[in-house]
Amino acid sequence: MWPALTLILTLSGFHTQDANSEDTIRYSRVRSTDEYLIALVRDGYRRSPTFRTLVDALQDSNVIVLVQPGLCAGGRIRSCLVSVSGSARDRHIRIKIDPQHTIRDRLIAGIAHELQHAVEIAEDPNVTDAPSALKLYRRVAFGPCREGLSEECETTRALATEKAVLTDLFRRMTAGANSAWTAVL
User: Fold this and answer.
1) Is 176 among the domain residues?
2) How far apart are CA 56 and CA 33, in angstroms?
3) What element of type H or E holds 80?
4) In a domain, 120, yes or no
């Protein structure tokens, strides 16, 4: 299924020209077939230096990330990394995000959280499938996953990234509001 899907995704990859900027944002390693999720990734890339760093790190890797809408843990959590496949040459990671779960900026931060997990995988060339991903997270995660009691794994880096992206987005939002308020005065 991946070859056909890759062709479709290549055609719908993230290539955008901001009307207010001469710079073209090009990244082909973080993809989606869902227009709303594409818009969230573009917005995160544009507004958050932390988000941009994640996408750029993936762009420099051999990992392709597919961001899809969907439920995680029966709707209990808003985002998750659901699969890892490939080889030492090319790896594919699929993440899900529930666009109904929360507001836009929190969705962007949730995507960043999962992209941080993708970066963690990209950093370890031995992770090419689900068992090797679980082995990695048994080593780098905390809590029940690290202890072998759960396959729901979490890392300090992903939580810190999510928080940093929310901070970036909030700063941009308040800076824009302050500029607008100053203009009114």
Assistant:
1) no
2) 20
3) strand 79-86
4) yes
Which pTM was predicted? 0.82
DSSP collapsed to 3 states, 11-46: HCCEEEECCCCCCEEEECCEECCCHHHHHHHHHHHH
Q: Among residues 59, 37, 40, 60, which one has the least CA distance to residue 48?
A: 40
**Number of domains within the chain:** 1
In a domain, 15, yes or no: no
Q: Calculate Rg over the CA atoms of the chain.
A: 17
Query: Is the pLDDT at 175 greater than 70, yes or no?
Result: no
Q: Are 94 and 83 in contact (CB under 8 A)?
A: yes
Mean pLDDT over the full length of the chain: 85
CA gap 85, 114 in Å, rounded: 16
Range of the domain at 132: 25-168
Say if 117 falls within a structural domain.
Answer: yes
Amino acid present at 71: L
Work out the average pLDDT over 118-143: 96
* Cα–Cα distance, 83 to 42 (Å, whole number): 23
Inter-residue long-range contacts of 129-137, CB under 8 Å, 24+ positions, other chains counted: 129/84, 129/85, 129/86, 130/83, 130/84, 130/85, 132/84, 133/81, 133/84
